[in-house]
Amino acid sequence: MGKDMIKNELMHRMKYDKCPICGLVEKRSESRIESVLKGAVTDTDTRREFLDSEGFCKHHAERVLRRKQPLSHAILYGNLLEYKMRRIGREKFRKAKCRFCELEDESEKIYVYWFAKSLTEAAFFETYKEQAILCTTHLDAVLRKLRKKHPMRETLIETTKEKYDALNRDLQEIRRKYNYKYAKEAWTNSEKEAWKKAVRLLTDQGEHRRK
Q1: Assuming Cys at both sites, which of 43, 68, 122, 148 could form a disulfide with 39, CB separation 3.0 to 4.6 Å?
Q2: pLDDT of amino acid 1
Q3: 134 burial level (CB within 10 Å; 0-12, 13-18, 19+)
C-alpha cells in the first residue's frame, strides 16, 4: 500500500465512531478471512499455511465459523484432522502463528506508523481533532513512535484527553440518570452510545494475538 492510500484510509475511517486503526485492522482481517475461505477449495498454499499453524487461533476460528461455510471448513479441518491423526504419538514441531493474527500484526504496524507520520499534516490532524478518537492501546502505540520532542506529541495527548474527558462526562451522566431523582431526564445521543464506546476504546482489540 502506498503512503497516500494509507493516509486516505485512515482519514476516511475517522468518520466512524471508533478507533480508526482498530477499524482498519479489522477491515483487512475480514477481507483476508473471505479470501482464505474462498481459496480453501482450490489453493494448495492456503491449505498448507493452515496446516503449518494447525488451524486458526480460537478468536479467529470463532469469527470464521460465523460465516457458515461448511465446504471450506470440511476441506480445511478435514486436512488438519488427517494431519493430526498421522502425528499422534510423534514428536511435535513448533507450529506457526495463526495467519490472521500475523496479518493483523502487520496491518497494525503499518497503520500505527503512518498515523504517527501523518500527524504533522494539518488536514490529517484536524480530521482527527474534529471527528475521531484513538483507543488507549493505539494511542500508546502511536506515542511510542513519536520522539519526546516531536512537535505533535503533546498536542495529540491533550487533544485525546479532551475526547476522553467528554466520554467520561457522558458516563457520569449515565450513572446520575440511573438515580431515581433524575430518572425522567432524557438521555443524549452521545450518552446512549457512551457505555459501548468506552468498552471499545478501553479494551485491547488485539489481545488475542499478543500472547
Answers
A1: 43
A2: 61
A3: buried
Q: Among all chains, which residue has been given the C-alpha cell 469469527?
A: 63
pLDDT in tens, 122-132: 999 999 999 99
DSSP result, 36-102: HHHHTTT-HHHHHHHHHTTS--HHHHHHHHTT--HHHHHHHHHHHHHHHHHHTTSPPPPPPPPHHHH
**Dihedral, 149, 151, 157, 163 alpha carbons, nearest 10:** 180
Instruction: Kindly state the helix (H) or strand (E) to which residue 138 belongs, with its residue range.
Output: helix 136-145
DSSP 133: -
Helix count (H) and strand count (E) of the chain? 10, 0
**Total domains, the chain:** 1
Q: What angle do CA 180, 182, 185 make, to 5 degrees?
A: 130
Establish if 211 belongs to a structural domain. no
Tell me if 80 sits within 8 A of 55, measured CB to CB: yes
Which structural domain, as residue segments, surrounds residue 61?
A: 3-206
